[in-house]
Amino acid sequence: MKITTANYQRDGAITGEALIDGEIRQFIFNESDTHPLAEEFRNALKSVEIEPYIAPKEERLEAALIALEAEKETALKELKVEYDGARYDADERSQLRVTGAVTLLSLAPEGTRQEWIDADNVTRDLTISDLAAIGSLIAQRVTEIALAYRAAKDAAIESAAE
Prior knowledge:
The chain is an alpha+beta fold. The chain folds into 2 domains: about 1-45, no CATH class; about 55-160, no CATH class. The chain contains 4 helices and 7 strands. The strands form 3 sheets. The chain has a 3-stranded antiparallel beta sheet with strand order 1-2-3, with helices on one face. A two-stranded antiparallel sheet has the order 4-5. Strand 1 and strand 2 (about 15-20) form a beta hairpin. Helix 3 packs antiparallel against helix 4. The mean pLDDT is about 90.
């Protein structure tokens, strides 16, 4: 018998081919297999220097972009802003609520206040100016996150092109 190929698989299995009596035969063994051929394949693999798998540039770029997108989405979902000593949620739903409150309060009589629950679950009494300031802070942070993501994405694409 002559082993012609032998490979470790990600799940720990060993696959390979062997020339036996003039015929190529394919084999698959799991880690705990006690078959004598399994031991021969293991020994053959021990004597070979195995190079680590390096993904092609396209795969590495795709993985980097997916990771960056996930980081951006997490940052946007967990976004908080601080205003007048309190922290406020700034995720997409909160952005809509702040925008809606500012719009509606702009139609209310001057001096109308709105109770608002901050990120620490404390009720705050806010004016339209307070809510507009919170909305402005949210927009600023969202823009910062978007610009940071864009810069990281551009850097990843440029790095992959080299």
